[in-house]
Every structure is written in structure tokens, then in C-alpha cells.
Amino acid sequence: MKNRVLEKFAELFGGDGDIRTYFAPGRVNLIGEHTDYNGGHVFPCALTMGTYAAARKREDGTIRFYSMNFERAGVIATSLEDLVYREEAGWTNYPKGVLWAFGEKGYRIPAGMDLVIYGDIPNGSGLSSSASLEVLTGVVLRDLFGFEVSQVEIALIGQFSENNFNGMNCGIMDQFASAMGKKDHAIFLNTADLSYEYASVKLAAARIVIANSNVKHSLVGSEYNVRRRQCESALEQLQKVVDIKTLGDLDTETFEAHKEAVADPVERRRAKHAVYENQRTLAAVQALKENDIKAFGKLMNASHVSLRDDYEVSCPEMDILAEEAWKLPGVLGSRMTGGGFGGCTVSIVETDCVDDFIQKVGGAYEKRTGNKAEFYVVDIGQGAGKL
User: Fold this and answer.
1) Is residue 129 predicted with pLDDT exceeding 90?
2) Separation CA 257–CA 273 (nearest Å)
3) pLDDT, mean over the chain
4) Active-site residue numbers?
5) H helix or E strand, kind and range, residue 155
6) Interior CA angle at 161 toward 90 and 87, to 5°?
């Protein structure tokens, strides 16, 4: 991958000068969905799939972008004076947003750059290709221009850019996982204060299998922001009867005792998911520490049901992938992962059942939907950095 981006860079922009290469991973979230903007816990891990870049500093203020994933778009040029969101700018709005966000945070970018990227994360899969690109851009800027910013700060700048430049009101999980990933470990992150610990995920006789529905409904952006507003409204009402800062501060018993304070039944269901999902995540990490993978899997299943029924961010295709997985021996747990309305499920499957899982879930999915799913047996990789 590194050599491919270098070759393309030399072809487009010339092979001379100080050309540097970088990588930022995508992520899969094992459990803890839609809790990261509700002050709850999440449990993602970085993947060995991600986004690669070759970059070289320029002497002027021009920025030239090229994606090997969108070759028809060609080289897209802009300048440091024109860091404005434009729909026609397509994928470059993500790195442009990070350049803009660095400036907003007080890091003056003195010159432009040439950038070639290639990602092996399936587009629209819910495995955080956008966060990977944002974190990648942050790592490139830090290295090329000598900024003193930590990995956590790069994650926060990526989130800030997506919230304020691209208009997607996401939480911190995706960028944090991409920046802070650790091989063979998931990150147990408290999004309320960004405290975290690494938890070993060495599954002795099981593998993590991602099933890509190859469906992405256009609802994801708008409905994501709607869910966030609904949770904020529920929180405001609950704060009148309970002393809390976030929904993540509530345990299930306290929520059940005070849930009628949320007048709208839809908002009540959204809050219920946020509270229960946070508690499931705490229980799941404890189960993993005790090597109780079966308990972990049951909590994954319950997470999907809650995302389907209370948070309503699943879709028929995702439900089919999960339901077909639940039927099979050797499947310890399966759930949708990511923002929802399409994308991927994540399953923990006993190693000797993986081939059967792919064949049977894939066959049933195609029969029921007419679409083909793609499967990835994944490894947990390192966070973003210079290659």
C-alpha cells in the first residue's frame, strides 16, 4: 500500500523532494453504540484496514489532493485561503476541514502540500473511513509542519472539524479509536472525560468477523443529528429530577425510577438506549476481563436489539445479517456497528465456524435481500502514525 501511494504520488506530482508516508486505521466498535455523545462508555478497536497517504510540503499556499479511490475526480486543488465547505469538493471536505480546524485551534499552517491518499476501508461501510481520513490529515500536518499536538488532540481536532466544518454532529469515538488504537487491544473509553484503558482482545478460539451489508441509506447524516437532539432533550428533562450531567451518569435502576420525566415516548426510548447501552458496555468489558466471551456475546446481541427497537438506527438489511448470525452454532454474538441505516455488523465467531458463518449468512442475506454481503475476518491494529 505504501509503495502504491508513493508510485502514484511520483506519477502525479514528481518523485523528488521530501515525500513522507502515513497511515490511519478505520475502527470497529465491539459494543457501546451511540453512547459517545451521551457521556457514556465505548469499546472500539482500530483495524488493520485504513487510509494511507503520501505527502510533501509545498513552498506556496496551494493544496493538491488526489484519491486513488476516486480517480475520476482527478487532482482537486484548493488553497489555504479557501478552506470553505463546498459540496462539489466531495471527499476533500474532510481533509480541508482538518486544515481549517488546525487554524481554528491556533496552529497556523504556513504552506500548502501535495497529498495522495488510498483507503482500503469500504466506502459507506460504517467502519469510519471519514474519521480515518481526518486523523490521517492531522498526523500529516503535525509531521510536515512540526506542530506539537498529541494523538488525543489530533482526535479532538478531527471531531471538531467533522462537527463544525462538515456538519456531522458525531461524538469522539471514531477519531479516538483511529488515533489511539493498539494492536490486539480494544479501547475502553469514558467519553465524559476521555479517560481510557486498553483491554486485551486475544480471542483464543474465536475471530472478529465484519459483514458489510453493502447498503448505506441516505438517512445516516440527518437522522444521526436528530438522535443527538432527542437525547439532549431527554437529558434536559431528566436533569430536573436527577442530579446528572449526561445520560451516561445514570444506571438502569435510576433511569427506570425517573423515566416518566421524559414526556415524549420516542425521546424516552432514545434515552433508554443510551443508559442501557452504557451499562451493557461496562458489563461487557468486565466479562472480557474475566474471559467470559459467551457473556460478552449475549451483550452484543442485546445491543443490536436496543439499536433496532429503542434507538431505531438499524435497517432491514442489518437486522437480517444479525438474525442469520444468531441462528448459527459457533456465533458468540453479533450486532450492527457504526452510525446505522446500513453499513456493517460485527460478530465474534468460533474459529472453526468462520467459513460456515460466511457461507450461510452470506447465502441467506442474498436470498432475502437480493444483495451480496462482503465479509472480513479482521485483526486489531495500531493507531495512526508516520510509516
Assistant:
1) no
2) 15
3) 94
4) 174
5) helix 151-164
6) 20
Residue 255 has pLDDT above 70, yes or no: yes
Residue 253 burial (CB count, 10 A): 9
Backbone CA torsion sign across 342, 212, 91, 134: positive
With a cut of 70, say whether residue 221 has pLDDT above it: no
Helix 293-309 vs helix 316-326: angle between axes, to the nearest 10 degrees?
150
Q: Which domains does the chain have, with CATH numbers?
A: 2-200 (3.30.230.10), 206-378 (3.30.70.890)
**Closest listed residue to residue 131, CA positions, set 384, 354, 386:** 384
pTM listed for this prediction: 0.91
User: How far apart are the C-alpha atoms of 238 and 33, rounded to whole Å?
Assistant: 21
CA distance 376 to 387: 24
What's the full length of the chain, in residues?
387
Strand order of the β-sheet with 41-42 is 41-42, 185-190, 195-200
Measured on CA atoms in the order 236, 242, 247, 248, is the torsion positive or negative? positive
H helices, E strands: number in the chain: 11, 13
- Asked if 165 contacts 102 with a C-beta cutoff of 8 angstroms, the reply is no
Strand order in the sheet with 342-350: 331-337, 342-350, 206-216, 374-378
84: its cell numbers: 470553505
Residue 211 is placed in which grid cell? 459483514
